[in-house]
Amino acid sequence: MPTLNRTFDRLSWTKQAACVGSTNLFFGYDNERYQTKNRREAKALLICQSCPVMLECRDYARENKEYGYWGGESEHDRTRAGYAVVGYGGGYMRSYQSYLARRNLK
């Protein structure tokens, strides 16, 4: 399974991430209120700013068109930077469990 091994190698930086255990701040839910999203993302940004792998995280999210808050950026931030999330509707974010399931990383 060389492909699976390469995937894990590409994600090895996640072991150093400051956000480990705080995924509720980085992945919202359907119909999240604007004010709630802003508060959640402000807390997430504080964690990102102290993270040793923030740039790797941001680059990964940009390259893979991820949902959620990654490397100090929301979907909206990535879209403005030219890395549009496929099907981005302005507020929809998949849950962390859905993210893992899509990548078979459970």
Question: If you had to describe this structure to a student in words, what would you say it looks like?
Answer:
Residues 90-97 have low confidence and may be disordered. The two termini are 17 Å apart. The protein is globular, with a radius of gyration of 13 Å. The chain is mainly alpha-helical. The chain has six helices and no strands. It has one domain (23-103). It has helices spanning 2-10, 23-26, 34-49, 54-64, 75-80, 96-103. Helices cover 51% and strands 0% of the residues.
If you average the pLDDT, what whole number results? 81
The span between the termini is 17 Å
Radius of gyration: 13 Å
What count of structural domains?
1
Q: Roughly how much helix do the residues carry, as a percent range?
A: 40-55%
- Helix and strand content put the structural class at mainly alpha
Number of strands: 0
What is the string of helix and strand elements? HHHHHH
Percent of sequence in beta strands: under 5%
Number of helices: 6
How is the topology of this model organized?
Layout: H1 2-10, H2 23-26, H3 34-49, H4 54-64, H5 75-80, H6 96-103
Task: Supply the key terms.
single chain; about 110 residues; mainly alpha; globular
